[in-house]
User: Fold these one by one.
Assistant:
Number 1:
Amino acid sequence: MIRSMCGLVALAVSGHAVWAQSAGTELNDTQRVGRALFNQSCRVCHTSPALNAPLYGPALTQDTQRGKDDVLAEIIRRGSPRMPGFEYEFSADQIGAIVAYLRAIPSQALSQPPSPPTGSRSERERQQREAD
């Protein structure tokens, strides 16, 4: 029981980090750099720290800013009224890597959070076998 709860917490906290494996999508080198930078500076506001916790900023996906890379890069660089700019922390290439990473995240990846397991362990195992 404790292991499954720990797994759920890890899944909820690492929503951006896990989507690629679950979707079967492989990140390229630039996107991996962008993911590392996102996790370093953006994740604290743009991902939920727990299943029922609110976000400080919007969830970011490939549809953010209607898919306009230059607009998204400018927001990351200069900031917005609710977000600090990162022009002195990240180079243009690093900001481009973050944008490339965000463009790899499908819109539906964050729209359906994982549901917690219900029932007994044997019931969950039976449901998993039926799903496979």
Note: Residues 1-24, 110-117 have pLDDT under 50 and may be disordered.
Number 2:
Amino acid sequence: MRKTKTKVNSYQVKGDLNIYTVASVKEELMPIVNTSMITEIDLSSVQEMDSAGLQLLVLAKRESLAKNAELRLVGHTPAVLDVLDICDMAGYFGDPVVISSK
């Protein structure tokens, strides 16, 4: 029996993930989350993130869990790590966090 490989659908957040940008990011991101079994969100370009950005990531995770799919966050920037740390949410997402020595 051959195992099929599930395709990973990626989305890169370009720019900030805050109250000013979250609506447009949501419009692009959620169709990917809703149609993918594995979604990877690249946060490596995020310079600023606030609670609105965190709420969008929580929504994406919740929608993935509801359909038994996987959501991965990658490329955590210091701005993303700060919000996850302040809100004690890193464990909720469960992704490995690589801390740069820069």
Note: Helices lie at 22-35, 51-66, 78-86, 90-93.
Number 3:
Amino acid sequence: MTRAFALLTAVTLLAGCERTPEVVLRLQGTVISIGYAKPVKNAEVQIEWPKELGGGSSTTKTDAEGHYAIGRTVRTRELDCKGVVITVHADGFASAYNQSNEDCAAGHLTADFKLFPLPG
């Protein structure tokens, strides 16, 4: 095998091994109560990620101001948040659900929720 052929083969193999770039996705929002417009603290926010964003699920809680934020690093050439499912549960409130139709090309997805207080 000639040296030029070996070098060309190595370059071809390296080009074929190019990795898909890492992209950071940030999902954030606020959870408030309907009627009172007060933040819902310690609400559980569950995210179901579509397979294009790595699949699986993540869970976080809201802070004292009702804010939540969660991030994920994915390998993709085009960032698309369509299919991200977010479910919010909090004691004393009806649960809320949202399935995203956003493309989130900038790496950010904001999903705010208004929870209905349950009588009790």
Note: The chain has one domain: 20-115.
Number 4:
Amino acid sequence: MTSVRLFARLREVAGAERVELPGSTVTDVLDAARAAYGTDFGRALTGAQVWVNGERVGADAVIPDGAEVAILPPVSGGAMVVRSPVTFEFGLVAAFTLGLTLANFLSLQWLAVVTVLLMTLWVFDLTGTGERRGLFVAAVPIYLGVVGGVLATYRFGGPGMAAAVVGTIILGLVWSVGRTHLREVESIAGTASVGLVACLGASSLILIRLRSRDDATVFLVIALAAIVVAWLADRSDMPIVDPMIGMILGGLMAGLAASALWSPDVSSSVFASAAAVAGLVGGRTLGMLVRAGGYFGTDELPGSLGYFDGVVLAAGAYAAVLMSLG
């Protein structure tokens, strides 16, 4: 008999998290499961991924004696994994943004420390949520990329940031080749995409602060306003706008106001603010793809830091335009 661990819909149909099934190959075990738990279980198995002792395997793989088999069904837009309450999410992400704002006023050094801490937590939340739906991403190279990006940008500015971003992507690709369960195209693409955005976002926050504290303040005001409006749209039973549109409108209005109040170069700041809003949309879309496996404009996303997804990429867009115009 083989010990099989079930997840999501499979666990619900079988009525147990762990079952014992006969079979010496993956195909034998899956056939035994279908026979034991019926048609609904068989439908839930469609497209499922099978893991043996922590490695993804195919249907013809032989199961060694004493091995543990895990079966993970695909997750669709209508079958999300558990997410945190939306009020908790808003409070947590708002605390993130306010923490960055406080660190920005204290010093560049404090901003660097807080950026590393918060970005690491965001990467943990994003990659962990993706893993729970079957998308495995090499998180370690991304953590290293965040730390390396902040340090390199702090020391060398723009060239340091560029080197860190490229290094993060290369390290992620090499790391994926070295781990069997990370060699799938989806995992490699996820590692490269999340690594790029995480390192770029963390480094950009430092680069913006190196330019001026006021520029960093403008960006953080945009981020906080976008989060608040998106949260209000999520909370409303009959929202005037959906969360994505609300994020765009809130970010644009906040960018215009903050640029007029704090920016030493209003015109550059306004253009950079528009780029940040585009980054908010792109970052939220990336978050949907990793967390839920597709674009779902109004669905609630799993995880605790979904509202922060857009902020990370927005930092890179804001910095790119600001530096090119300045």
Note: The CA atoms of residues 157 and 207 lie 6 Å apart.
